[in-house]
Design a protein that fits this description.
With 545 residues, this protein is of the alpha+beta class. It is 16% helix and 32% strand.
Length: 545
């Protein structure tokens, strides 16, 4: 009985041992199999990684080759690299790469990397190739296109979009600026360049502002934050019609604090406490705008230092165009593209002569001066006014004008008073004829006079002295100094009027183009060269679009 019990006990003891040993064997087999599989997978991954590494090297090699071909291929201005560039022993791997546009730019690059029996193919589309050399261009918009204003925490409902300066005070006033980069050719890229004269690396996008006044003695820092929300410039008004501290358009509030601009500045750099130009390197953010990777809503400028500072920079509304904010670009131009023109990226400059001009005088109500080489302007009393008209038919319908500047040459001033010259431009609202006389009156007046629109036998002006809108379109500016209105010391030279808004309305067909009227409140007599004058200083309307 004991033996049988003993055998029974022994039998029950052996079964668990056998089961455990079988399980261990199964686990061991499984582990060996997994280890073998893992080893194979790791080996495959290594092959793929090394093949991909070689393929990426091939992309770099063919891109280098394509960029060095240049853009003067007579068949296709975008270079191609049809023959493969290869390396049979790239650290044990190999690659073969080529570029092809299929005659439709931009370039497509393809590279095949191989290691052992594993191959990886990489393709890169929309590769931009560039003209040789670095291009340069200064973007410095005028009053019509310039976007800049001031935000004042103490005046949260006020706009300052048309002021000639951007005042900044630590913790109180900040500035907004935006440059329109949309006309730069797609793929343009700002690149730093080495200045051998000064032995320094110059920025690809150098942002400049002219400091015209300050109330601090030491240098200060300026912080530049990219804006993340659109805004409207507006004008100077106690009731904001544009961006203010509280709103982005005069009506709608900015998003929560710090959500309308990047809280971390892209640039924080010092500027000096002296009158003149200061520059900041904005190459990084400019390239993000140019590539479309970041929406271009402009910049918010702050004085971050704790020390109180008060500084004035000129704005795009300042009377001197050469002192407007600007960006000096050094950039790569994509193959086949046109570089920015003299008036701005992709712009056309059209200089027009008037199709008719004349003076009209109150003292000679029926005298026509349509062929006179001179035109005159004088204030109330013995009034003289000038009317002129430009044909804008050469500008395509729907064109957005960048600027329209009226230029007139002052040949002399009789009986100068020494006062400022408030010469205003107005929209003429009735048709008129230039005429062919030089002071002839009576029945010989065949063109506009003070009383008549089309000569003595024609209809009269509804309002003597040329029917016009009383609202001022523009005020004269001394071209050489940018001072508006021209100072008492001005005696001769070019005067300008910014009539962009009015010209745009004419181009858009919102108003009939009946021309412009110029008048003045000053009692001195200003003489202007007319279109008949042989001096070469004839009237001009310079339009950029």
């Amino acid at each position: 009985m004991k033996m049988m019990r003993s055998n029974r006990v022994a039998g029950f003891t052996l079964l668990p041992v056998i089961l455990i040993m079988s399980l261990i064997a199964a686990i061991a087999f499984s582990m060996n199999r997994d280890n073998a599989m893992n080893t194979a997978m790791i080996s495959t991954q290594t092959d793929i990684a090394r093949a991909r590494y070689a393929a990426e090297a091939g992309l770099q090699a063919v891109n280098y080759a394509v960029q060095n071909i240049g853009c003067d291929d007579m068949i296709n201005i975008y270079p191609i690299q049809m023959s493969a560039i290869s390396d049979a022993d790239f650290n044990g791997a190999s690659y073969s790469a080529f570029g092809n546009t299929l005659f439709t730019p931009p370039t497509t690059l393809t590279s095949v990397g191989t290691y052992n029996s594993t191959s990886v193919t990489l393709t890169r589309n929309n590769i931009v190739t560039y003209e040789p050399g670095v291009q340069t261009y200064t973007l410095q918009p005028g009053t019509a296109l310039g976007m800049d204003t001031v935000l004042d925490i103490n005046k949260p409902n006020s706009s300052f979009g048309d002021e000639g300066k951007m005042k900044m005070i630590t913790g109180i006033q900040e500035s907004l600026l935006q440059f329109d980069l949309s006309s730069f050719p797609a793929g343009s890229r700002a690149v730093p360049w080495y200045d051998t004269v000064n032995a320094i690396l110059q920025p690809g996008a150098d942002f400049g502002m002219y400091e015209q006044a300050n109330l601090f003695l030491n240098s200060q820092n300026l912080s530049i934050h990219p804006l993340t929300h659109s805004w409207i410039e507006g004008t100077k008004s106690n009731n904001a019609d544009g961006a203010s501290w509280g709103t982005y358009d005069g009506m709608n509030a900015w998003p929560a604090p710090n959500s309308s601009f990047e809280p971390t500045p892209v640039v924080t750099a010092p500027f000096t406490a002296t009158i003149g130009w200061n520059y900041w390197d904005i190459t990084g953010i400019a390239n993000r705008w140019l590539s479309g990777l970041y929406p271009n809503h402009g910049m918010r400028l702050q004085l971050p230092d704790a020390t109180m500072a008060d500084v004035d920079f000129t704005s795009s509304d300042h009377g001197t165009a050469s002192l407007h904010p600007k960006i000096d670009f050094s950039y790569l131009l994509p193959c086949g593209e046109t570089p920015p023109g003299s008036g701005g990226p992709g712009s056309t400059t059209l200089t027009l002569s008037p199709n008719k001009d004349a003076s009209i005088g109150k003292g000679g109500a029926d005298l026509n001066y349509g062929r006179s080489p001179d035109m005159h302007i004088k204030g109330p009393g013995d009034d003289w006014r000038t009317v002129l008209e430009f044909d804008l038919g050469a500008i395509p319908n729907g064109t957005l004008l960048q600027s329209a500047t009226l230029r007139l040459f002052v040949s002399g001033i009789a009986n100068p008073t020494g006062g400022v010259k408030d010469i205003t431009a107005h929209q003429v609202t009735q048709t008129w004829t230039e005429g062919t006389r030089v002071g002839a009156g009576g029945g010989n007046a065949d063109g506009t006079t003070w009383d008549f629109r089309r000569g003595k036998s024609g209809p009269k002006w509804t309002t003597p002295g040329a029917t016009h809108n009383t609202a001022t379109i523009a005020l004269a500016t001394e071209e050489s100094s940018g001072i508006s209105p021209p100072p008492g010391s001005f005696t001769s030279g070019w005067l300008t009027w910014d009539i962009t808004a009015q010209s745009q309305e004419w181009v858009d067909g919102l108003f009939n183009n009946r021309g412009l009227l110029l008048k003045m409140n000053n009692q001195e007599t200003i003489s202007l060269d007319s279109r008949e004058n042989t001096s070469g200083n004839n009237p001009q309307l310079v339009i950029i679009y």
